[in-house]
């Protein structure tokens, strides 16, 4: 199928946002508009959701490249959203069909919740009948109707609740979690100061994702989600849990309640009720915070920008070249890929969840949320209701060490390791100052309480050293492991941590002390580690970069200016490409691709023409090791030399703030999942009395352990990165949304 209609006219695509607004909708709209133009199609923005389609006129406007400039980082949806009651009627949909047909639009990308997608599918089903009726009424010529006899659709899920069954994450959920965690971290410090309890109510009528994810990432004590209503007597259980926490010296208690939480009779559990229970039974001053629409507001997170951009891009390809003609798809990001799931099935499954809950089939309701939700649910249970706060006598000893560069989320990972380790019956030992500290015997047991408050803090409380042990160091390390009776080792860190663990594994014949289970957990802002699509810390650094870029753009908004921004990442271009994609850069320079003088010259030419044609701002993002010769300074000077007064040039090197950020919700959740899986790996190995080495990571939303034995096969040692890097697949997306095709 070409991107032209039968008569040679370009295909026309409509895009609209509908239902509840969600952060990232603008990024998706921008990507739809620009990808469509890049593909030679025409694109129409439909304003105020389905209502714009019904109203026609200015409600449906052809969009050009610049109509979506500067919206990537804006909250809400610039084309408006609306809950159109008229669209629920056939009469309304008939008007909508007429307005689309008149303009030759027969492809639609809709960004909305399950309600919007239901309406969309209904419209598609009825389309032939609606057109027949228009022809019969004399409202449309038969040839026109025949030329557009099929409405081709694609759905993107805009929903802060993350509630669409079959889609791992929905547009807006990550940003909502950012807002919630901001509030939770703030509440937890004030609660701790006054030894108060807080009840936090978050959105989620039928879906507990936000509540659960927030409770884990915020280190909370109790959570109530709609999918799994608590059994009778839950109030006693909750109070007992809070009491135990207090008895251990915990200064704050926080209960998270999803707005749709109920008990098993279906009666709503309000945050006010939870408050009264705590304050009556525990005699504690308890406050309620209902976050409400704050969760929808603010700037979109980095994830909601790049993922929505990718989705918008793919949605255009889906309506131009349907993957399964006649069976519409909804698109979602799943790990390192965009997946297309049957729209009708996904919507039906989503709408069945409240029915399952009402029927008391909680297991099915939970199952509908997918494996990672359930995994998080179980981990939360372990963390908030531990089997024990102390390891049993004679428990196996697992040591935790950090190595490599600092990454946000190291503390989260260490905290989860200590608490899950203890509740699973191990003694947890913290090694201070990395492998150097291990050589010098800087080890101490860590108790449940020692890691209080580590969940959301940046830095690494245990300390770390970048160095990889030398052959000479290995003897001392082996001695220290033996002297301290270490039965297993959890290495949390970046490239050097992987190198160190691999070295120990390779030398295990020579040093029996290394014949213990060793598992490496990926934490690195560079995101250059094997066996994982994302490492803990990469999302936090990316958010730092994107927020810096937002401010840089603002600083340049009053003049005409070109910026060259440099990101960290060593030889890995993840931060540069993703910051460029999420920040709306015109160019990115990566080590993976190198920089050629010819292409730099072409960029400079383009820039001169573009400023001459009215451009006011230009942004290039350069990875710190993109090229040894063409440095950030060099590129800036090149741009400056070509400016002839049309613009001025500034450079900005973002630097170490990328490593020092507080971990984002996504990084805290990832840290929790990878550590939990690592400890299971260690437990299995200890139970079968076998040593071995593994590295753990995220692959297609599953947490997977891979043997260290084969690790080096998958990496480019010289450049310290995996041979295959999934995110390089976003290069064409970046191209399509930033380089306007010339006529
Ligand atoms: P969300 O998309 O966020 O779930 P709604 O359920 O309110 O939000 O749906 C948004 C809009 O989608 C509705 O106002 C209506 O215009 C349209 N819509 C929803 N369900 C249907 C339906 N069954 N038939 C036709 N249109 C529908």
Named once each, the bound ligands are:
adenosine-5'-diphosphate
Summing up helix and strand content along with how strands pair, one would put the structural category as alpha/beta
- Classified by CATH, the class of the largest domain is Alpha Beta
Percentage of residues in DSSP E strands: 15-25%
Gyration radius, rounded: 27 Å
Number of domains: 4
Helix content: 40-55%
Q: Biggest sheet: strands side by side, in what order?
A: 3-2-1-4-5-10-11
Global mean pLDDT = 95
| CA(first)-CA(last) distance | 22 Å
Looking at how many chains there are and whether they match, the oligomeric state comes to: single chain
> Which regions have little confidence, pLDDT < 50, spanning 5+ residues?
none
What is the correct CATH architecture of the largest domain? 3-Layer(aba) Sandwich
Strand count, sense and barrel status of the largest sheet are: 7 strands, mixed
Explain the layout of strands and helices.
Elements: E1 12-17, H1 25-38, E2 42-46, H2 50-55, E3 60-62, H3 90-102, E4 105-112, H4 114-136, H5 142-147, E5 152-157, H6 173-194, E6 197-202, H7 209-217, E7 222-224, H8 234-247, E8 253-258, H9 271-282, E9 286-290, H10 302-320, E10 329-334, E11 337-342, H11 343-358, H12 362-368, H13 371-384, E12 397-403, H14 410-423, E13 427-431, H15 434-439, E14 443-445, H16 471-483, E15 488-493, H17 495-506, E16 517-522, H18 538-556, E17 561-567, H19 574-583, E18 587-589, H20 597-612, E19 617-623, H21 632-641, E20 648-653, H22 657-660, H23 665-687, E21 692-699, E22 702-707, E23 715-716, E24 721-722, H24 731-738
Parallel strand pairs: 1-2, 1-4, 4-5, 5-10, 6-8, 6-9, 7-8, 12-13, 12-15, 15-16, 16-21, 17-19, 17-20, 18-19
Antiparallel strand pairs: 2-3, 10-11, 13-14, 21-22, 23-24
Helix pairs in contact: 1-10, 1-24, 3-4, 4-11, 6-7, 7-13, 7-23, 10-19, 11-12, 14-23, 18-19
Bound molecules: adenosine-5'-diphosphate.
Residues 18-20, 50, 83-84, 87-88, 112-116, 118-119, 122 line the site of adenosine-5'-diphosphate (ADP).
């Amino acid at each position: 199928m070409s991107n032209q209609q039968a008569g040679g006219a370009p295909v026309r695509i409509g895009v609209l946002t509908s239902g509840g607004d969600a952060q990232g909708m603008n990024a998706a709209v921008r990507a739809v508009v620009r990808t469509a133009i890049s593909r030679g199609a025409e694109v129409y923005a439909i304003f105020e959701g389905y209502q714009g389609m019904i109203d026609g006129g200015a409600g449906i406007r052809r969009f050009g490249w610049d109509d979506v400039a500067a919206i990537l980082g804006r909250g809400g949806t610039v084309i408006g959203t609306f809950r159109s009651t008229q669209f629920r009627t056939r009469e309304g949909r008939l008007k909508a069909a007429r307005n689309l047909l008149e303009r030759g639009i027969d492809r639609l990308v809709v960004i909305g919740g399950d309600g919007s997608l239901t309406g969309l599918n209904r419209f598609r089903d009825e389309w032939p009948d609606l057109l027949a009726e228009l022809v019969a009424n004399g409202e449309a010529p038969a040839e026109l109707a025949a030329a557009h006899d099929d409405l081709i659709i694609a759905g993107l899920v805009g929903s802060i609740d993350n509630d669409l069954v079959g889609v791992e994450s929905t547009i807006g959920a990550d940003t909502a979690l950012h807002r919630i965690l901001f509030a939770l971290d703030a509440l937890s410090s004030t609660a701790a100061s006054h030894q108060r309890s807080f009840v936090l109510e978050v959105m989620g009528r039928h879906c507990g994702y936000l509540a659960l994810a927030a409770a884990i990432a915020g280190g909370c004590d109790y959570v109530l989600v709609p999918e799994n209503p608590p059994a009778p007597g839950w109030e006693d259980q909750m109070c007992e849990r809070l009491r135990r926490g207090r008895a251990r010296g915990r200064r704050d208690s926080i209960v998270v309640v999803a707005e749709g939480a109920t008990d098993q009779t279906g009666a709503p559990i309000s945050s006010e009720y939870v408050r009264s229970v705590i304050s009556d039974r525990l005699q504690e001053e308890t406050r309620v915070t209902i976050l409400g629409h704050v969760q929808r507001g603010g700037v979109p997170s980095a994830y909601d920008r790049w993922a929505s951009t990718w989705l918008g891009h793919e949605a255009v390809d889906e309506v131009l070249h349907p993957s399964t003609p006649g069976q519409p798809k909804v698109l979602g990001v799943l790990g390192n890929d965009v997946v297309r799931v049957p729209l009708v099935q996904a919507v039906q499954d989503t709408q069945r969840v409240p029915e399952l809950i009402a029927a008391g089939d909680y297991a099915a309701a939970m199952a509908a949320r997918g494996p990672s939700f359930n995994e998080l649910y179980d981990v939360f249970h372990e963390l908030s209701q531990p089997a024990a706060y102390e390891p049993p006598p004679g428990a196996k000893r697992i040591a935790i060490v950090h190595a490599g560069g600092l990454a946000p989320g190291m503390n989260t990972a260490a905290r989860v390791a200590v608490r899950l380790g203890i509740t699973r019956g191990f003694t947890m030992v913290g090694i201070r100052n990395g492998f150097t500290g291990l050589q010098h015997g800087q080890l101490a047991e860590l108790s449940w309480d020692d890691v209080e408050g580590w969940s959301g803090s940046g830095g690494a409380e245990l300390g770390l050293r970048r160095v990889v042990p030398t052959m000479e160091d290995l003897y001392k390390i082996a001695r220290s492991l033996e002297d301290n009776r270490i039965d297993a080792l959890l290495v949390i860190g970046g490239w050097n941590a992987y190198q160190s663990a691999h070295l120990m594994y390779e030398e295990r014949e020579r040093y029996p002390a290394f014949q213990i289970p060793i598992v490496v957990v990926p934490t690195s802002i560079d995101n250059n580690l094997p066996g994982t699509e994302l490492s803990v810390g990469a999302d936090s650094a990316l958010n730092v970069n994107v927020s810096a870029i937002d401010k840089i753009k603002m600083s340049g908004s009053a003049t005409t200016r070109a910026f060259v921004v440099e990101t960290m990442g060593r030889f890995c271009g993840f931060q540069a490409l993703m910051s460029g994609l999420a920040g709306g850069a015109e160019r990115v320079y990566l080590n993976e691709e190198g920089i050629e003088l010819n292409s730099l010259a072409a960029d400079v030419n383009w820039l001169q023409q573009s400023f001459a044609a009215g451009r006011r701002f230009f942004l290039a993002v350069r990875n710190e090791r993109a090229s040894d010769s063409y440095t950030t300074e060099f590129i800036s000077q090149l741009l400056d030399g070509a400016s002839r007064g049309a613009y001025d040039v500034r450079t900005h090197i973002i630097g170490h703030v990328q490593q020092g950020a507080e971990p984002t919700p996504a990084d805290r959740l990832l840290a929790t999942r990878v550590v939990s899986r690592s400890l299971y790996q260690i437990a299995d190995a200890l139970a079968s009395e076998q040593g071995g080495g593994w590295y753990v990571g995220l692959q297609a939303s599953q947490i997977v352990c891979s043997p260290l034995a084969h690790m080096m096969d998958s990496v480019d040692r010289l450049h310290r990165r995996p041979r295959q890097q999934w995110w390089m697949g976003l290069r064409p997306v970046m191209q399509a949304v930033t380089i306007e095709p010339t006529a």
